[in-house]
Amino acid sequence: MISSTSLLYPDAFLSPLAIDEAVHRALDEDLGRAGDITSLATIPEATKAQAILVARQSGVIAGLPLAVATLQKLSPDIEVRAHVRDAARVTRGQQVLTISGPARAILTAERTALNFVGRLSGVATLTADYVARTEGTKMRICCTRKTTPGLRALEKYAVRCGGGFNHRFGLDDAILIKDNHIAVAGGIRPVLERARARAGHLVKIEIEVDTLAQLREVLDTALADAVLLDNMDLATLREAVRMTEGRLALEASGSVTPDSIAAIAATGVDYASAGALTHSAPNFDCALDIGM
Fold first, then answer.
1. Number of domains in the chain
2. Domain hosting residue 114, numbered range
3. Any residues with CB less than 8 A from the CB of 271 and at least 6 apart, and which?
4. Which of 16, 83, 136, 278 has the largest count of CB atoms under 10 Å?
5. Is 111 noted as a catalytic residue in this protein?
6. Which of the residues 36, 208, 251, 270 is marked catalytic?
7. Residue 73 falls in the annotated catalytic set
8. pTM given for the model
9. Which residues have a Cβ under 8 Å from the Cβ of 255 and sit 6 or more positions away?
10. pLDDT tens-digit series, residues 10-49
11. Are 119 and 212 in a shared domain?
């Protein structure tokens, strides 16, 4: 029997506490007050079963620690053997997990386990597609806070499994000054001065700009660590890179799609953030096949 932590991708840490919380919440949602009344009514308690989790499409797998935790939460007697690790590329029809143990528990866990793997593998697979399109450039692909409520840590983990990088996790781990902050604070210089006065020495400050004139103003203050270039066309992105001369990090945002990502990377920006990695990733098709 394996532990869920043995499936963790070494460069994409996911807290065991986040796994436990997510599994508990998902099973509570599915089991309700009376449990799996179908399996309880139709499967004798002592029945054993074997099952295989199979990929029904090619892509990048993620979420196996959650599938294992879901199964073993319902029965510690379930044994699982992993054929791949999270972040591995799989092909259609490939076996991912072999499962054996009490049949009731396997059947009860089936949909919740598949939901985790399907959702997170979908995010990882889409991220890997973006990353592949920027091969040979320095640019990093980042996710955003446009995540499913309650699943942010899991979805950002899946982005890392796909070869992407994480933007901030929440409002508390970096200062990101958006256009509305600038408007309320009275301009770029005053908002940056206030941010710098409050920021700890390890807290980065990023500010969003819409024009090259705003970028010049940010550069003149020398108070920001990074600039988010919002919805700029390719020519403007290239000019922003030229103006900045490496003095701070540049992040392209807005209209970042699979079709545009290679051209954005070629402009020389350091990062591109795409909310689509998490809010628009298709579900990865996988199944649990029972074989007594």
1. 2
2. 4-126+281-290
3. 139, 140, 141, 142, 165, 249, 250, 251, 252
4. 278
5. yes
6. 208
7. no
8. 0.94
9. 231
10. 778 889 999 999 999 999 999 999 999 999 999 999 999 9
11. no
